[in-house]
């Protein structure tokens, strides 16, 4: 007859074999965060202190320009047995891709009726907040006359700026999202021609940060980047100006790309994930991100902090359909890879 210790050992072994692993503590909520650790970690810690000390966020971060792709690939690989409870993406395209694959759980997001429709999933599986703007960063030493500054994203294809402007390779992050939006707004054929002209005209760099650094260092006169990368250079005293593009009549407006939150379908800790999601989707979270070095732009009208990256005059934002853009991505990505890997980086 088995001893008591041996009996319980067999039981535990059998449970592990059946369930695959010992369940994680119910008080944990696993967060996959594409937002940089320096910005996300203090906010997640504040949730534990201020709201529910019984719930401990366990963040998982990835690194470098492919961090969103890396986290999304982990979610896809784990879809049969999810590890992630809450996905905090610092952009939106790949969040919508997860939505399209049926991997996200609908949630009653606590936002007002005036929340922009483009910042909410049609099936309530994700919600957007705390945006970054897509802007032009201009070297004011190379272009001292403001009347000569570019004012539209379309100027990336203008031959007068050949080898004087820059763009990040549009295969990852916000530049990929921007490319998908252009594919929708311009139409596939017109967008493909535009991308080819841009690839032939502009320096193609590895990321938005590299664009901002290149312009700040005088390697090119201007480039397309994100507000968080541009404001760092301006705050450091570099000779740069930030232009919110396409503000003139007949132009589409500047694109803003939000952070997104989404609860995973069959998440191990759905109740804790919902509590954390509700905490993060508050105006005070946007205020914290607006005050930070990245100067992210609040979506909520209840937010009190106006980030210093914004110009004095109101910005007109581009009307977008992120879900339609995500539908285009699978077909667009291979085309962009061909167009933008056939050029040499600076």
Automatic annotation (TrEMBL):
Pfam families (UniProt xref): SBP_bac_6
InterPro entries per record: Ferric-bd
Swiss-Prot/TrEMBL keywords: Signal
Record-given protein name: Fe(3+)-binding periplasmic protein
Keyword Signal: yes
PANTHER family found in the cross-reference section: SLL0237 PROTEIN, THIAMINE-BINDING PERIPLASMIC PROTEIN-RELATED
Cross-referenced CDD domains: PBP2_Fe3_thiamine_like (cd13518)
């Amino acid at each position: 007859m088995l001893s008591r210790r041996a009996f319980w050992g067999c039981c535990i072994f059998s449970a592990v074999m059946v369930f695959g692993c010992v369940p994680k503590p119910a008080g944990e909520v696993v967060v996959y965060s594409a937002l940089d650790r320096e910005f996300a970690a203090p906010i997640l810690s504040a949730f534990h202190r201020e709201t529910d000390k019984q719930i401990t966020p366990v963040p998982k971060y990835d690194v470098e320009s492919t961090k969103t792709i890396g986290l999304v690939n982990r979610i896809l690989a784990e879809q049969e047995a999810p590890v992630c409870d809450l996905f905090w993406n610092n952009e939106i395209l790949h969040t919508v891709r997860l939505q399209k694959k049926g991997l996200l759980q609908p949630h009653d997001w606590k936002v007002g009726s005036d929340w922009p429709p483009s910042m909410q999933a049609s099936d309530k599986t994700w919600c957007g907040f705390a945006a970054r703007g897509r802007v032009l960063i201009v070297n004011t030493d190379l272009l001292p006359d403001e009347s000569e500054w570019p004012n539209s994203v379309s100027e990336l294809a203008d031959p007068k700026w050949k080898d004087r402007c820059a763009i990040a390779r549009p295969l990852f992050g916000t530049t990929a999202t921007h490319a998908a939006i252009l594919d929708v707004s311009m139409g596939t054929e017109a967008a493909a021609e535009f991308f080819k002209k841009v690839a032939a005209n502009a320096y193609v760099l590895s990321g938005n940060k590299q664009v901002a650094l290149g312009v700040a260092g005088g390697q090119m006169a201007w480039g397309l980047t994100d507000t968080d990368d541009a404001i760092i250079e301006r705050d450091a005293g570099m000779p740069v100006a930030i232009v919110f593009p396409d503000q003139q009549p007949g132009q589409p407006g500047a694109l803003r790309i939000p952070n997104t939150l989404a609860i995973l379908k069959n998440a191990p800790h759905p109740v804790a994930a919902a509590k954390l999601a509700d905490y993060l989707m508050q105006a005070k979270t946007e205020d914290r991100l607006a005050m930070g070095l990245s100067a992210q732009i609040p979506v909520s009208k209840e937010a009190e902090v106006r980030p210093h990256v914004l110009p004095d005059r109101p910005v007109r934002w581009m009307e977008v359909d992120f879900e339609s853009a995500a539908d285009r991505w699978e077909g667009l990505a291979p085309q962009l890879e061909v167009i933008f890997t056939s050029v040499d980086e600076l």
